[in-house]
Amino acid sequence: FDAGEKMLVEYMIRVPGGNFWSETSLSPMCDANGNITAVVGFVRDITERKKAEEHIRKLLHAIEYSSATIVITDTKGKIEYVNPKFTRLTGYTYEDAIGSNPRILKSGKTLPEVYSELWKAIMSGNEWHGEFCNKKKSGELYWESASISPVKDDKGVITNFIAVKDEITERKKMEEMLLQSEKLKSLGTITA
What is the pTM of this model? Predict the structure, then answer.
């Protein structure tokens, strides 16, 4: 510990009835020759901050390892975050996605009215649920069921949007096969 150097130490203190976290800041006091003559210390309880950090760590872990794709945008639609599932599913890297607009996934198969409805809902502070036919970086089409919600600050102002999406391509294929089967059955009934 040298003159002019400050030290910050965090540690957990075990006491009967529970533990708490402490942060100690130490600063040397020096004489005219630069010799340390005393050390001044400040101690503060950082238990609540440590609990909040642990909570955030758990949430981040859940998002990073989610089986759903998660995309966070600003209020103009610029992508600020995508989880690893997004990159595996779409073929876009994290670097490709950040700063882009979710339109990079647009296939042209989803009706424009769907996007209008989506923006109307989320800009008014409501959650939107629906389905998209999107396009991977490779050009391959896929279907997603999406839930998109506004994120608000402590004053209620929308700051971001978060999309949680599940791939439903296989389900959509099964639905299409069932629909075709029903059509063929009805044709058989009509011609009989």
Answer: 0.75
